[in-house]
Structure formats: structure tokens, C-alpha cells
Amino acid sequence: SMDSSGPFVSTKPSSALTETIVLQGKMKANFEMTSNTASNDIVEKDYKIDAERVEIYTAKGASLQHPVSILEPAKFSIFYYQKIGEVHLTDLKFVTLTPIDLTISMQNAALASALATSISDSFSTNKETSEDEAERHSISARE
Fold it and tell me: Measured in Å, how far apart are the chain's first and last C-alpha atoms?
């Protein structure tokens, strides 16, 4: 048991705020994959994302306080095509319809890396992990 009284103990609730990366705007995505039914292998992928007024910013807490812009609102499209076979072909295109104003700090890069790792780990298909050993990940402004 810890003593919760004394001159150095705050009676206010914890004010530590979680930093969040916010992606906001309108996006339309189309994902197509073709597989060989005999071998169950994916032989072709064709992805397209159209984005309009998309912006990215960081903010703190559930109420998204103190927003700091990373990407100003922009309109763009991303195209990804991959053909897998004897000859492997990959094509990636990024087309912008407005000027792109992007500002990334080392802190933004570290936060994005942690977020990507958390998402990747959440979708991991490691068959050696049992239900009891599985770690639960949450990406929330309320953590």
C-alpha cells in the first residue's frame, strides 16, 4: 500500500496526454487482387487511392488539443500495381493535383514508426503465438 498523502501528491487527475497522429479528409480506395485458384498464390495486385482535402496533423489527448500540421490539405492519387510470376513487375505512382506542403520532425517520424509497428504487430500471422500469449494493442487517444 502506498501513502497517497503529503506535500508532493497532486489531487488533480493525471494530465499526461497521449500524442496522436490524425489523418483527416475524404478518401476513396479500390483494391483488387487476382489469385491462381490451383496454387492459391496471388498473381496480381491493383490498388488505387484517391484523396481529397486530406490533411495529417498531430494532437494531444482525446479532445485533440494543440494540433500541429504535418501535411496541409491536399488532393492526390496513389496507384500501386504488382504482377507476380516469371517476370516480377511493380509499379507505384503518386500524382498530386495540389501543391504538397509536408513538414516532418524527428518526433513525428518516431511516432509514425511506433504506430506502424503497432498496426503491423496487430495483423501479424505468427502461428506460434497462442491466444494466451497474444499481446493486445490499442491505438487510441484515450490510452
Answer: 25
Report the alpha-carbon distance of residue 66 to residue 17 in Å, rounded: 11
In the structure grid, which three cell numbers stand for residue 42, read together?
496471388
Q: In what order do the strands lie in the sheet with 19-36?
A: 19-36, 41-60, 65-83, 89-96
Q: Model-level pTM greater than 0.70?
A: no
Q: Strand 19-36 relative to strand 65-83: parallel, antiparallel, unpaired?
A: unpaired
Residue type, position 72, single letter: E
Cβ-count burial of 20 within 10 angstroms (0-12 exposed, 13-18 middle, 19+ buried)?
A: buried
pLDDT band at 21 (very low <50, low <70, confident <90, very high): confident
